[in-house]
Fold this sequence. Notes:
Distance between the termini: 59 Å
Radius of gyration: 17 Å
Structural class: mainly alpha
Order of helices and strands: H
Shape: rod-shaped
Number of helices: 1
Number of domains: 1
Amino acid sequence: MFTRSVRARCRLAITAWELALRVLAAVTVAMISSGLLALR
């Protein structure tokens, strides 16, 4: 039971990290694209 909860926590942490990384990537891409459009 203890190991099971630890595995679940690890999975939750990994999914949270993936979501945060995806949001950061989307924001950076949007900022770069908007910056390029502003330069034009």
